[in-house]
């Protein structure tokens, strides 16, 4: 059976320093910006896995800043920049909204990469892979191999979590721990 692949990147750590900003307007904080650099290194090792195809970001500033931060770090590592689209529908904290959006995607894409938000991402991973992941950390990456031939067929237990990379975990691995 043909398989689809879903790549999820949770936005990096955002700033709360400006209380007057709406949730959509919050930028990344310094830790979040550093995490983008770390994750660019981690994700560059996954080039053959198609995560750079069909990238769709939430319209929240922190999600777009994450895409931009990873893209800039990849450029500095002498790799090509990312190309992404912005979709308002990805700005959700509800996995059922995300699932509905995913099911509506055309069949021309075998892989989709979403840059968005928790708890929607964690709950979606748990539902599709029938696991109990506690939390996809900020700037964390998850790759789900989906045993479906159409996005419309997405449902509980159809996936396998094949990669889970976090900034903290990647740094520890690089340090040899």
Layout: helices, strands, pairs:
Layout: E1 4-10, H1 30-44, E2 55-57, H2 61-76, E3 84-86, H3 95-103, E4 111-116, H4 120-129, E5 141-146, E6 159-165, H5 167-174
Parallel strand pairs: 1-4, 2-3, 2-4
Antiparallel strand pairs: 1-5, 5-6
Structural summary, described in words:
The chain is of the alpha/beta class. It has one domain (4-14, 24-174): Rossmann fold (3-Layer(aba) Sandwich). The chain has 5 helices and 6 strands. The protein has helices spanning 30-44, 61-76, 95-103, 120-129, 167-174; strands spanning 4-10, 55-57, 84-86, 111-116, 141-146, 159-165. The protein has a 6-stranded mixed beta sheet with strand order 3-2-4-1-5-6. Strand 2 (55-57), helix 2 (61-76) and strand 3 form a beta-alpha-beta unit. Helix 1 crosses helix 2 (61-76) and helix 3 (95-103) packs across helix 4 (120-129). The chain is globular and about 40 Å long.
Whole-number total of structural domains: 1
- Can you tell me the CATH topology? Rossmann fold
Give the CATH superfamily. Phosphoglycerate mutase-like
Radius of gyration: 15 Å
Which sequence of SSEs, written as H and E, runs from N to C? EHEHEHEHEEH
Unreliable parts:
none
């Amino acid at each position: 059976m043909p398989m689809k692949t879903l790549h999820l990147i949770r936005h990096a750590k955002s700033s709360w320093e400006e209380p007057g900003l709406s949730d959509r307007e919050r930028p990344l904080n310094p830790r979040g910006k550093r995490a983008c650099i770390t994750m660019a290194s981690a994700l560059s090792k996954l080039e053959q896995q198609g995560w750079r195809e069909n990238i769709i970001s939430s319209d929240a500033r922190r999600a777009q800043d994450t895409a931009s931060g990873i893209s800039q770090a990849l450029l500095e590592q002498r790799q090509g920049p990312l190309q992404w689209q912005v979709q308002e529908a990805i700005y959700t904290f509800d996995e059922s909204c995300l699932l509905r959006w995913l099911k509506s995607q055309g069949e021309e894409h075998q892989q989709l990469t979403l840059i968005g938000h928790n708890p929607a991402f964690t709950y979606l991973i748990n539902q599709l892979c029938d696991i109990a992941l506690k939390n996809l950390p900020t700037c964390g990456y998850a790759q789900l191999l989906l045993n479906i031939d159409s996005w419309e067929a997405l449902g509980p237990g159809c996936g396998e979590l094949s990669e889970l990379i976090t900034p903290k975990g990647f740094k520890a691995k690089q340090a040899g721990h």
